[in-house]
């Protein structure tokens, strides 16, 4: 393995969290990421969609919720969730199995808006689908929003196939944890 590959795997380990086993949940929530200007999926987003559809096909999630609006790194005008849901339809997922949350710009808002949408339907036990480096923080927010959230690990994720790009994503994720810590301190100080 190359030096960047070894470094990416080592640095991503503390960020990863996944539940083993094939237990069924009420839904899979597939988190968004920036898409192309033309509304097409990037390889990262496509990887997430395929993992969510795989959960649905295996009977581990009868509902797939795609979550993501126009985030801070958006390059187009189509919300991430809308583009992801369209890709899932093309892969054979019926409309009745789809939920689309297209207003959230970040992981925290993904959790809050999905809670508004899904908890009222009784969809509490969920698989969270994202790249391994993003799972631990995503689970933090979704559990805080009231879900019984489990992380679905994309085993052969692009973060490992392209370690140089993966290192960039991992560095950004560590920055998000620093901001999360600062946010938590600020919230405690307000009490």
Describe this structure in words.
The chain is globular and about 45 Å long. With 191 residues, it is α/β, with parallel strands linked by helices. It has a single domain, classed as 3-Layer(aba) Sandwich (Rossmann fold). Helix content is 49%, strand content 12%. The termini are far apart.
Helical content band? 40-55%
Q: What is the general shape?
A: globular
Let me know the CATH homologous superfamily: HUPs
User: What structural category characterises the helix and strand content?
Assistant: alpha/beta
> What spatial order of strands do you see in the largest sheet?
3-2-1-4-5
CATH architecture: 3-Layer(aba) Sandwich
Helix-strand topology string: HEHEHEHEHEHH
Give the tally of β-strands: 5
Which percent band covers the strand fraction? 5-15%
Low-confidence stretches: none
How far apart lie the N and C ends?
49 Å
Briefly summarize what is shown:
By secondary structure, the protein is α/β, with parallel strands linked by helices.
Using brief descriptors, characterize the structure shown.
alpha/beta, 12% strand, 7 helices, 191 residues, five-stranded parallel beta sheet
What is the topology?
Layout: H1 3-12, E1 27-31, H2 43-57, E2 64-67, H3 80-90, E3 98-101, H4 107-118, E4 125-129, H5 132-144, E5 148-152, H6 158-161, H7 163-190
Parallel strand pairs: 1-2, 1-4, 2-3, 4-5
């Amino acid at each position: 393995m190359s030096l960047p590959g070894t470094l990416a795997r080592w640095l991503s380990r503390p960020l990863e969290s996944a539940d083993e086993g094939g237990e069924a949940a009420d839904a899979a929530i597939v988190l968004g990421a920036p898409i192309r200007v033309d509304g097409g999926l990037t390889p990262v987003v496509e990887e997430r969609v395929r993992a969510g559809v795989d959960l649905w096909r295996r009977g581990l999630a009868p509902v797939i919720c795609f979550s993501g609006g126009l985030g801070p790194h958006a390059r187009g005008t189509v919300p991430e969730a809308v583009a992801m849901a369209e890709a899932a339809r093309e892969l054979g997922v019926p409309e009745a199995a789809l939920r689309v949350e297209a207003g959230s710009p970040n992981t925290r808002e993904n959790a809050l808006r999905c809670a508004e949408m899904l908890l009222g339907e009784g969809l509490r036990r969920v698989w969270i689908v994202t790249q391994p480096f993003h799972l631990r923080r995503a689970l933090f927010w979704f559990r805080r929003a009231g879900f019984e959230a489990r992380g679905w690990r994309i085993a052969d994720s692009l973060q490992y196939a392209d370690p140089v790009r993966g290192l960039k994503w991992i560095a950004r994720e560590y920055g998000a944890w620093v901001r999360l810590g600062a946010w938590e301190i600020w919230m405690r100080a307000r009490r």
